[in-house]
Amino acid sequence: MQLRCTYCQTMFALSREEMLAALEHMEENNQIYYDAHCPKCRRANRVERARMERFFPDWKIAIKAMSKESAKVEVAVEQPALGSKAATESSMPKHAARHEKKHSPKMKPAAVTDIKTGLKIPSPKGISSQKGKPAGTIKK
Residue 70 sits in which domain range? Predict the structure, then answer.
């Protein structure tokens, strides 16, 4: 739902989740207005409950559906997690597991640091990653 701040005239939107929470709060506390805060000036703008219900007519059904989903998530969290990579691979399709293994990002070697000082140790001069060439002749 699009709103315009009555103070700074900035347009901002209320998401469906925010509208659902606002309607639930107004229902519990028997309120007529909701204070929507402007993201620019942070002032509260009054939004009538009837206007919000026009934009979200089936909000009571949505609250029931959301509570059912949250109950399912809570049950899933309470079950002990297997905690291994094999468990995550078994839960995804075979082709996705193969794709993940094949295209996983390669690990870069860690920088060499001195244990006592914690500073990086530079590589000695004349040693390069290419065999037989001095360090200054490496092409990128």
Answer: 2-78
